[in-house]
Every structure is written in C-alpha cells, then in structure tokens.
Amino acid sequence: MLSDGDILALLGDGDVSDIGSEIDELEDDNCFPIDEFDQLLNDFDDLSSDIGPDIEEVEPDFINTNKRDIHWVQKPFEPPTINLEDIESEYIDTLKTPIQYFSEYFEDDIFVKIAFNTNLYATKKNLGSKFKLTDEHEIKTLIGIHMLMGCLKYSRVRMYWQKRFFVHLIADNMSRNRFFNLRTNFHVIDNNDIPPGNKDKFIKVRPLCDSFLRKCKSLPVEKNICVDEQMVPFKGKLCIKQYVKNKPIKWGIK
Q1: Deepest of 22, 26, 195, 205, by most Cβ within 10 A of its Cβ?
Q2: Parallel, antiparallel, or unpaired: how do β-strands 242-243 and 232-233 relate?
Q3: pLDDT tens track for 203-217
C-alpha cells in the first residue's frame, strides 16, 4: 500500500496540469501562421484600393428643399401639350343616342316580362274592364316618364297634367289616369315566385338589377379607376333607406 508521501511524489508539486499542457499543444497546432495572415491583409488592402475609384455614388432623383426656402409665384396656367393621337383607345369613336345606351343595359325581354307580370297582377285583383292590358312599348313609356319627372321635379305628380304646369312630352304620351293605373299595378316579377323566408330586399326588382350589373361587368375596365358613392335623396317608405347624421343629404339611398 502506498503511503501519503509516495502519492505526493507521484503527483509532483501540483503546479503543472497535464490537461493544460495538452490544450496548449492543440492550440499551437491549430494556430494560423502570422506571416500568411499579414500577407492576406496586404492583398485585401490592394484589392480594395483597386475597386474603390470605380464605385460611383448614386445621387437621389429628388432634392430636399426646406419649407422656408420655397416661394410661391402666381402666374397664368400653361396646360401641358398632350398628343391624343398616339393613345390607343378601345372605345368606339361614334357616340350613341341615350335610348341606345338604355337599350344596352335593359333588353326588350325584360319589358315583355314586366308587361306580363303587370297584367297578371291586375287580373288577380279582379279589375276586369277597369284595367286595359298593357304591352312592352307602354311600359317603356311609363319608365321614360318617370325618368323625365326625375329631371323636371314638381311638388305633386298631378301637376304635369295641369294646364298651368302642362308638360307636353309627358301628357301627350300618356293620360294622367292611365299613368296612375299602370303605376299602381306595376310588377317586375310574380309575387308567387317569391320563396318563403326570402331575405333579398331587391327581389321584386331583381331582374332589372341583374341586367344592369351584367352589362356593367361586360364593359372594358380602364387602368386608372376612381370609384365614389353618392346619396340619393329619399324620405319615402323604403327598407333600404339610410340616415347619415353628418351629411348634407341625411335621408336617402346609398
């Protein structure tokens, strides 16, 4: 058995570590030569000096100007010169009449259906001889009169047939009683076609809306488009009527 003195003799004085010596040897083996490292630094400096002069500083396209240095000058407006001949247009050069534009959005088949459903509704009400059956041409006249009334606004509808406010374009095409009779029985669809539990607020005029939207979607779309909405003044009884407090037109359809 070894005594304490023999163990201390084998360990030595304890100041030297075998592990530390092995790490030092590994570091010496993996150390990068100083001469080669200095040579790489010199080569890099030479390379950067060759590339440096060829690099050009990019100047910005805009100039920052202080607001205090801006002075506005009042002078006559000079419109820019634009050559419209070089611009390719997808539209037809010839202008159409208003009735031609209207016919593109609302085809004749729609007015035939409106006339049929109007006659059907009047028949279901058992009006008999009190209602004369209508056709698509008279329905077009009725719609045209409503559009004209929207442009020439009177406080009451009956005023368009009065002698003092007589409008020939309206009164010469349809009598007052016939106008009210058609407007009372006017129907775009058959009420029996409305499904139970319907939630479509426009179902009674859905064929008109679909025809209009179908034509709008077929129009060529330009690159730059600005879409805006407008409030149509209306204070009558309507489920889609809106009230906007902070608008000039507070009641209407939007």
Answers
A1: 205
A2: unpaired
A3: 999 999 998 998 888
